[in-house]
Amino acid sequence: MSAHTAARRANFFEIIWPIARATIFAGAGYAIGAFGVAAIRGGTWMDQVSIVFGFVIGLAGWLLGGGAFEAWVRPWFGYENNWNEGHGITRFFRYNTDHKVIGVQYMWAAGFAFLAAGLVAMGMRAELFTPQLDFFTNRTWYNTAVSIHGSLMLFSVSVVAIVGGFGNYFVPLLVGADDMVFPQVNGISWWFVLPGIAALLLSPLLGGFETGWTGYAPLATTDEAGQLFYYLGVFSLGVSSMLTGVNVIATAVYMRAPGLTWNRLPMFVWAMIVTSVLNVMWVPVIGVNMMMGVMDRVVPTAFFGAKGFPLLWQDLFWLFGHPEVYIIMLTAWGLWLEIIPVFSRKTLFAYRWAVIGFIVIALLSGTVWVHHMFTAVSEARLIPFMTNTEVISIPTGFIYLSVIGTLFQGRIRLTTPMLFALFSALNFLIGGGTGIFLADVPSDFQLQDTFFVVAHFHYTILGGMIFAWFAGLYYWFPKFSGRMYNEFWGKFSAWWMMVFFNLTFFTMFISGINGMNRRIATYLPDLTRLNEFTSIMGFLFGVGFFVPLINFLVSAYVGRRAPANPWGGKTLEWATTSPPPHENFETIPVVREDFYRYGDVTEPEMGLFPNPTLGSQQHTTGDD
Amino acid sequence: MRDLPILAVLWVVLSAIGEWVIQILVDHWPLIASAQGEETKFAFVFLFRVGAVVFIGLTLVIVYSMIRWRVPEDDVRDSAHQYRSSWSFVVPWIVVTTLMNGFFIIHPGITGLANIWGMAVAAARNPNTIEVDVNCKQWSWSFDYPKLGIFNQSTLVLPVDTPVKFVLHSEDVIHSFWVPSFGIKKDVIPGEERVLYITPNKITSTKDNLLTRVQCAELCGSGHSTMRAVVQVESKNDFQSWAQQNGTSSLRSAGAGIGAG
Questions:
Q1: What percentage of chain A exceeds 90 in pLDDT?
Q2: First to last CA, chain B
Q3: Which terminus of chain A, N or C, has less C-beta within 10 A?
Q4: How many CB pairs under 8 A join A and B?
Q5: Total domains present in chain A
Q6: Residue A503: how many CB atoms within 10 A of its CB?
Q7: What are the chain B neighbours of A307 within 8 Å (beta carbons)?
Q8: What are A381-425's pLDDT values in tens digits?
Q9: Is residue A453 part of a domain?
Q10: Cα gap B148→B132, rounded to integer Å
Q11: b/e map of B184-204 (b: 16 or more CB within 10 Å)?
Q12: Domain of A105?
């Protein structure tokens, strides 16, 4: 997957040893923490206090083993950094400070978590195939499956795949920089992801956790010890998001190429800046929340228990949790607006309105969280939060304004990335549209906690963000692999995913309206037919993910060599080779015009709002 | 530019078809058997009808563009129509979305809430309102009718067309009191007392329709999916005789217990 592979083929041991060493150090750290604490305070290494100390010291061991010892600790004491950042494929499995390598590391980690959590979802659909309990041995394991699926998908896929993957890889390229501002911080940030994924996946060893990804107290305080791995894993993933956020903001502010003014900034960079600001603002809230949850179990404090404030957890969780939805979706919108002009051969419509939309969404995102709690809070909080929630659809509409204005009268090439981007826009229309029913307090009183909600957020996050992620993967695959993917199988996967995604999740709206509540292992027989259909469609949808997986893996080795600019894009990443050299550009590029200008369009006047006279229809070139 | 008239005609035709389909769906809607439920259903159907027109319009433009302006994939010529923005599109867009939002907040949002709250206020003043204490714990429901002297019922029996004041208590974790056919739910927070007014307006029971059941709607642990209770909405006379039978016998047995002690 690299230009450097030609030099020397890496053997298996070279690829695996940094992660193997990190795992051994993590295990040793865990043992020191757990047994050490058990020895000091009495008790066993399976006590909750021991587990927490085991995890923290294990995490430190993991970081040191992954390369932080050579790259971070040695320089602190005046020794040279003698870490070998690897070559070829080995780079993707060890501490590395090249933003492109880190981007790929984030992508494979998110891809792994996506497949794992997807597999868990298949288990859930197998259970819901019949009304009785038959696939899982008991209801606790079903609830644990629900929890692991949700936590992995939200905390280690949705907020990691695009922000960590494309954000790291493409923000420096799009702004014409040679790397992120803080490469060492960037290198370490990825190492917080795998412990988070591992903690969530290994939580069944401690009895699992039954609270779902939302971790509501007081259920969480009485739950199995697996809940601790939820708190600690999510905290670890949050650290990674914050470090990436700081890096992205600093890079976009300080590393822009000459001439790359703010009103020429690519849409994906805008999306990443706004997302990163939200990450830096709100991830600390969830971090604090998780730590309070840990304290409730090990100190024990009583923040969230039945004798404390059970709703405090929900308030803090959603105070982060709703901005997180925008952390997830802004990245997808950035990708739409990056991809659609390229494949419409048309100037991006209403660039400034789309940017205003991003910023206003970010401003409002922290004022809507109570709409997740309409059935739990006092009446006084209903109307203000309903108002804020509905108002946020106005700036969201600006993105569709931009999409539709760009598509209209374009010359549309329905390549795989374009198909995925448009499918994502269509799916999100259903996801956002059904959000109105949930923002409206009266209809939410009935729909809250039903499958209607499940369908709604899968339409936004899976149909919206994951489809956009695939759009980006296909769009930039030639850039980061240096080879072209197979177009037929790309389009096949786009149509397959679109059809079976909709058949799977649209049915869930109907189940919800018919009284099927969320997070249930068994249901009453009146819903059998709907669930059988959903499950079969869900299995077909799930199988479909092997098509892109095989397509990418095979194409990375045997695909046709990609030219520097296969799509005719104008942003800076297409101005360098595929894949880019280590320093990205041979010389720092100079930006002379904006990236979304196609054909013969008049330059806009400088100013905040688009000039009305620019809508004129004078054309001298073109095909008609 | 024939595209705009074509789109307009398509939008009208498809919206008409959409509204017709929605009407069929509304005619076959799952059972709603309470006055509050009719409010929440009204809000849903109203948003569905208006939202469908918007949804169809936006989907139509995207799908129409995909078909109408599609070119072969190796054709990389720029479009002849280039514009950065257009006030004639942007201004109506912003005005319409803002007005629609304002409208939705007021109706059915605030008006629906006002109706539901209005019913609650009326029920609180109404001397005929039945009071039911709902006690939930992992993973069962029990119902007390303190004013009727009926305690520890596992079945929720209610009279039709009579307001009911549910006083919700939880012993352990958060549950949610939901009868799907009543069309409204409320979370039950341990350590707090929540009140929910519902006026059942159809005679129905779990036996007739599975939507008429008490169902915990907030994940509460391993027994969550089966945390249900049977509901019977009866005529006022049937309810009265049920209350007399159970009320007196419970009181009598309670009294007998005291006497024996």
A1: 89
A2: 93
A3: C
A4: 303
A5: 1
A6: 16
A7: 191
A8: 999 999 999 999 999 999 999 999 999 999 999 999 999 999 999
A9: yes
A10: 10
A11: bbbbbbbebebebbbbbbbbb
A12: 96-575
For residue B174, give the nearest of A310, A422, A617 by CB distance. Answer: A310
Tokens of A375: 């059935």
CB atoms within 10 A of CB B182: 32
Q: What is the DSSP string of A384-414?
A: HHHHHHHHTHHHHHHHHHHHHHHHTT--B--
Tokens of B89: 């599109």
The residues, ordered by sequence, that sit 6+ positions from A291 with a Cβ below 8 Å of its Cβ are A231, A235
Residue type, B28: H
| C-alpha–C-alpha distance, residues A395 and B98, integer Å | 10
CA angle A94, A98, A99 (to 5 degrees): 110
Residue given tokens 């050579």 in the structure block? A70
**For position A506, which CATH number holds?**
1.20.210.10
Determine the Cα–Cα distance for residues A544 and B20; give it in Å rounded to an integer.
Answer: 35
**Is B70 close to A412, i.e. CB distance below 8 A?**
yes
Let me know if residue A21 belongs to a domain.
Answer: no
First to last CA, chain A: 43
Burial of B11 (0-12, 13-18, 19+ CB in 10 A): middle
* H/E stretch holding B228: strand B228-234
Query: How many Å apart are CA A520 and CA B222, to the nearest integer?
Result: 9
The span from the CA of A294 to the CA of A303, in Å, is 10
- Interhelix angle A467-481/A416-439, nearest 10 degrees: 150
Interface test with A, best of B34, B36, B78 (most A CBs within 10 A): B78
pTM: 0.94
Positive or negative: CA dihedral A338, A340, A341, A345 = positive
Q: Which residues contact B70 (CB under 8 A, 6 or more apart)?
A: A412, A413, A414
Look at B69 and A407 and tell me if their CB atoms are within 8 Å. Answer: yes
H runs (alpha helix) in A131-225: 139-151, 159-160, 167-174, 183-189, 193-202, 219-222
A445–B185 CB contact, under 8 Å? yes
Please name which of B104, B25, B119, B18 lies closest in space to residue B59, comparing C-alpha atoms.
Answer: B18
Q: Please state the separation of Cα A193 from the chain's center in Å.
A: 12
Interface predicted TM-score (ipTM) of this complex, two decimals: 0.94
In the DSSP assignment, the letter for residue A599 is: S
User: Is residue A582 assigned to a domain?
Assistant: no
Q: Which residues contact A431 (CB under 8 A, 6 or more apart)?
A: A456, A457, A458, A459, A460, A461, A463, A464
- Facing residues of B136 across strands? B141, B170
Using CA atoms, how far apart are residues B52 and A342, in angstroms rounded to an integer? 30
Under a CB-based contact definition with an 8 Å cutoff, are residues A495 and A419 in contact?
yes
Domain membership flag for residue A550: yes
| Residue B47 contacts A where some CB pair is shorter than 8 Å | yes
Cross-strand partners of B238: none
Which candidate in B38, B50, B74, B83 is best for mutational testing of the A interface (most A CBs within 10 A)? B83
CB-based contact A445:B183 (threshold 8 Å): yes
Q: Which of A211, A441, A599 lies closest to B113 in CB terms?
A: A441
B141 neighbors B229 (Cβ within 8 angstroms): yes
**Structure-block tokens of residue A135:** 């696939």
For residue range A284-303, list pLDDT tens digits in order.
Answer: 999 999 999 999 999 989 99
Q: In chain A, which residues have pLDDT < 70? A: 1-8, 601-624
Compute the distance between CA of residue A377 and CA of residue A315 in angstroms, rounded to an integer. 10
Q: What is the mean pLDDT of chain B?
A: 92
